Amino acid sequence: MPKIHTRLFTTLAASLIVAAAPSTVLAERPDDRPNAQAQAKKRHQPPRWETKQVEHRRTENGYERATTWTGPDGRTATRNETVVRDPEARTRTRDVTWTGPDGKQRTVHDVVTRTDDGHTRSTVITGNIEGR
């Protein structure tokens, strides 16, 4: 009988060690994680933009949306989007122009066409492709 109790005790002890292992990982302090201080600073940074203004207008066959962000220093960035749907041609065309606070522009011309077995998409991006 003592051998059975020893095996049972050993199995039980090993199970407890394995079960306790995840809790020790969860119990680590946030300061011990890599980049914890950088993440904390990022969460507490002042907002990049003071205000955001969005104007949305529905059109007969789509919509137009103009967004303007104003920063704490008074500089602005804009995004203008026009979407047109053509049910007869089975297409949706989207044109977007971004202008950053530094004046750099980026444009996207996107055409999605419905096909019998799915859709096709054609996208042309010009300007500052990195979006900076």
Q: What does this entry show, briefly?
A:
The protein is an alpha+beta fold. It has two helices and six strands.
Main attributes of the structure:
2 domains; single chain; 2 helices; extended; 45% strand; alpha+beta; six-stranded antiparallel sheet
* SS field, number of helical segments: 2
End-to-end CA span: 74 Å
Q: How many E-type strands?
A: 6
Helix content: 25-40%
Low-confidence stretches: 23-27
Beta-strand content bin: 35-45%
Largest sheet: 6 strands, antiparallel
| Mean pLDDT metric | 80
Strands of the largest sheet, in order across it? 1-2-3-4-5-6
| Domain module tally | 2
| CA radius of gyration | 28 Å
Q: Tell me, briefly, the overall form.
A: extended
Query: Structural class of the secondary elements?
Result: alpha+beta
Secondary-structure element series: HHEEEEEE
Structure in words:
The chain is an alpha+beta fold and 132 residues long. The chain has two domains: 2-43; 51-127. The protein is built from two helices and six strands, in the order ααββββββ. The chain has helices at residues 2-26, 36-43; strands at residues 51-59, 62-70, 76-86, 91-99, 105-115, 118-127. The chain has a six-stranded antiparallel β-sheet, with no helix packed on it. Strand 1 and strand 2 (62-70) form a beta hairpin. The protein is extended. It starts with a helix and ends in a 5-residue tail after the last strand. 0% of the residues are buried. The model is unreliable at 23-27 (pLDDT under 50).
